[in-house]
UniProtKB/TrEMBL annotation:
This is Hexapeptide transferase. NCBIfam families: NeuD_NnaD (TIGR03570). The lineage of its organism: Bacteria, Pseudomonadati, Pseudomonadota, Gammaproteobacteria, Lysobacterales. Residues 6-78 form the PglD N-terminal domain. The gene is perB. One of its GO terms (molecular function) is transferase activity. Belongs to the transferase hexapeptide repeat family. The keyword Ribonucleoprotein does not apply. It comes from Luteimonas terricola. It comes from the Bacteria. Keywords: Acyltransferase, Repeat, Transferase.
Length: 215
């Protein structure tokens, strides 16, 4: 199968992760874009800066570019979704990327532009919205509902029936117990053990998870 051209928006480490996950799929990365003046993460792929440059670059291509991946990690789900909408407005598809070692149950539902990375698991009846990242070795157990723009960090564990609302961030190695609700834009610190609901736009850390103590 002939590889199809694809662009990546975001020029740092997550771009490298995405390209690795694409290795056995029929995509060929032809350009990287970012809002910042930085060095391309790949020696063989050029990096361009800004939305205006992107629009002119798209019009200059002799081969139709049909797809893009948004490589914006961290806790910036809103930027990830805004960038996805910008790319969609240019007629590009946002393929779901599943690493060859990742697991997605046949009864799970995965939205456009999601990334299920190396050794990650999305289990039975789980539902992922748009542009969700399930990062390296993270797991989303049965019947979880994950909102648009959520990032579940490396090694994080979500028990069954967890609800994570849009743009929330689950830090590295965090554990969320079954049937807990994580509000929109909440941040769960690395290694936190979440035993109860977390309100929207709240940061929690520790075991059991609690807001940071302000001095």
């Amino acid at each position: 199968m002939t590889a199809q051209p694809l662009v990546i928006w975001g020029g740092t480490g997550h771009a490298r992760v995405i390209r690795e996950a694409l290795r056995r799929e029929s995509w060929h990365v032809v350009a990287v874009f970012d809002q910042r003046e930085i060095v391309s993460p790949f020696e063989d792929v050029p990096l361009f800066v800004g939305t205006d440059t992107f629009s002119s670059w798209m019009h200059s291509q002799s081969v139709e570019v049909v797809a893009a991946c948004v490589a914006i990690g961290g806790n910036d789900g809103k930027s990830r979704l805004d960038t996805a909408d910008f790319l969609l407005s240019h007629g590009l598809n946002l393929p779901t990327v599943i690493h060859r070692t990742g697991f997605v149950a046949t009864t799970a539902t995965i939205g456009d532009g999601c990334h299920v990375l190396a050794q990650a698991a999305v289990c039975a009846n789980a539902r992922l919205g748009r542009s969700v990242i399930v990062n390296t070795a993270a797991s989303v157990d049965h019947d979880c509902v994950i909102g648009d723009g959520v990032h579940i960090g490396p090694g994080a564990r979500l028990g069954g029936e967890v609800l994570v609302e849009e743009n929330a961030f689950i830090g590295i190695g965090a554990v969320v117990l079954p049937r807990v609700r994580i509000g929109s834009g909440a941040i769960i610190g690395a290694g936190a053990i979440v035993t109860r609901d977390v309100p929207a736009c709240t940061t929690v850390i520790g075991n059991p998870a609690h807001p940071p103590i302000r001095k």
